[in-house]
Amino acid sequence: MAAPPGAGGRPPLEIRGLVKEYVPGTPVLRGIDLEIGAEGITAVIGPSGTGKSTLLRCINRLVEPTRGEIRLRGEELTRLSGKALRLARRRIGMVFQEYNLVERLSVMENLLCGRLGYVPLWRAWLRRYPAEDIARAFALLDAVGLPDYATRRADALSGGQRQRVGIARALMQRPELLLADEPTSSLDPKTAVEVLELLARLTGEAGVPVVLNIHNVELARRFARRIVGMSQGAIVFDGPPEALETAHLRAIYGGEDWL
Ligand SMILES: Nc1ncnc2c1ncn2[C@@H]1O[C@H](COP(=O)(O)OP(=O)(O)OP(=O)(O)O)[C@@H](O)[C@H]1O
């Protein structure tokens, strides 16, 4: 599916021939080609173990790709290391299934962690963040519906509240791209919808494209403008939700007795 280009004419994300082998000779990703355009949610669906998380983690180099190219607005990420990699990483926000908040810290401190990499380490240690970061954190807490939670400890929050903080933290760094790995799998169905509505609205307003790994096909249809279906480490469907038919679901998940 053609991806509209981002600012500067380059799509925010271009992946070419991405291969990942955790065990040499056994590829988990088998040559992924994918472009992510400037806006909207792209949902990646596929059975357990098909490589969805590996794909997301290769993008921000939490997992080392074995071969292939990954470009963020034209900058090749796979060859970066040290400071250049840290600089590139902070351009990519990440929202996790298990939230990954620092449990013993306050909500505000968790949000300000989203600015680590921007704020000099000594200021972070002394907890002396710039006033504009603090103002932005309050504005984001408001935006995610938690205006009175700044001083609460993360471990006192519900799952839905934690994920709201996770989204605010990811947006704190003003990312050019947001990766969300099963952000609603640990939530009840109603909270999952609310969290995805929030994710869609805030990233839409900020103009940040999202790659969303999600098991729930109905939620993928509802919130994504594009669906990428993976099977055994390869892309077997790529199109708008309206184009995803039963035959595609069979190709993605295999079998048919569950349909
Ligand atoms: N660190 C690792 N070392 C070795 N193998 C791994 C590692 N991480 C993942 N794998 C393997 O890679 C394959 C793809 O895993 P991955 O987590 O990317 O799939 P997934 O599609 O995200 O699955 P799920 O939907 O269950 O999260 C699996 O066979 C998994 O066992």
UniProtKB/TrEMBL annotation:
One Gene Ontology MF term: ATP hydrolysis activity
Pfam family, one: ABC_tran
Residue ranges of domain ABC transporter in the record: 13-257
Keyword RNA-binding included in the entry's annotation: no
Origin superkingdom: Bacteria
Keyword Mitochondrion on entry: no
GO cellular component, one term: membrane
UniProt KW keywords: ATP-binding, Cell membrane, Membrane, Nucleotide-binding, Translocase, Transport
NCBIfam families reported in the protein's UniProt record: ABC_phnC (TIGR02315)
Protein name: Phosphonates import ATP-binding protein PhnC
